Amino acid sequence: MSLFAHQPFSGYLHHWSLERPPFLSGPDFFFSGQPQREVLAALQYFATSNWKLAFLTAVSRSGISHLLDHMVSMRGLGTCPLDVILTRSHGEGSTAIQQLGSVLGQGCHDLPVGQMIDTAIQQSDRQGIRTLWFIENCTASTIGVAMDYARRHRNFSVVATTQPDQRSSLQLSAGVCGMQIQLTPLSPEDTVAYVDTALKQAGSTRAIFSETAIARLHRSSAGLIGDIAVIAESALTTAACRGQNRITPDTIDLVVENHKLRCPPKQSVNDESPAKRVA
């Protein structure tokens, strides 16, 4: 479920004195909780190391796409001279390779895709620039081709995103272990901070969610920022339609029931109150 796939009707904004939808408004708002900061720090280390491959593992709805988009918008990682490429795989290895070729092969369209990629990587290498290829939803066929490029070129490395249950098979297809990086769910404290930050950037000047409502929101979403966003935005709409001036745990329960979301086991999350090309 994408953070931005659901756009609710906007009539509730006036009820809460909001300027725009706080949680599903668009990709310009990026929340950097502890998990996001740890991943970005790990990627920065990877970019300056001798590692050729990293596996970035994240469960669905944890905000990995938004984190990658934010990383690209930062135009690199730290001060290391990088050529960063982000492609999104849709099940066919050739698709990702074609995307890579279309980005790297500007000005060399008369060459075959493979040769075009090799030429562009070599040119960056001669300039002292490392090429870093991020492959979202990486497949076994894609990782095999990607590692062929990584073995041929000294300054070419790969970051493959994958789900936890697919990492072992992807690692087997790659033929190397690779650095392990994981995007974990938000903590209860980060959920509180996310809700507060999202509401403030949308124009809120008061606490709309009660502390107990945020605790219930965290438990119901298991800390997955994608689910937090959907539930929280729906709670704003539901409470406005009911004429409420505060969102309570009952509102969260109603939204979860309407979305047919299944609450995680209690031990899986701590129910306490207080996550293209650039030069």
Describe what you observe in this structure.
- The protein is α/β, with parallel strands linked by helices and 279 residues long.
- It has two domains: 14-24 and 186-275, Orthogonal Bundle (Helicase, Ruva Protein, domain 3); 34-182, Rossmann fold.
- Helix content is 46%, strand content 11%.
- It contains eleven helices and six strands.
- It has a six-stranded mixed β-sheet with strand order 5-1-4-3-2-6, sandwiched between helices.
- Helix 4 (93-104) packs across helix 6 (140-152) and helix 8 packs across helix 9 (211-221).
- It is elongated.
- Residues 1-8 and 263-279 have low confidence and may be disordered.
Identify the notable features of this structure and list them briefly.
11 helices, alpha/beta, 279 residues, Rossmann fold, 2 domains, elongated, single chain, 6 strands, 6-stranded mixed β-sheet, disordered C terminus, Helicase, Ruva Protein, domain 3, disordered N terminus
Shape: elongated
The largest sheet, given as strand count, sense and whether it forms a barrel, is: 6 strands, mixed
Provide the helix percentage: 40-55%
Placed side by side, the strands forming the largest sheet appear as 5-1-4-3-2-6
Evaluate the radius of gyration: 21 Å
Topology as H/E string? HHEHEHHEHEHEHHHHE
Are there runs of 5+ residues with pLDDT below 50, and where?
Answer: 1-8, 263-279
Number of helices: 11
According to CATH, the homologous superfamily of the largest domain is P-loop containing nucleotide triphosphate hydrolases
- The CATH topology assignment of the largest domain is Rossmann fold
What percent of residues are in strands?
5-15%
E-strand count: 6
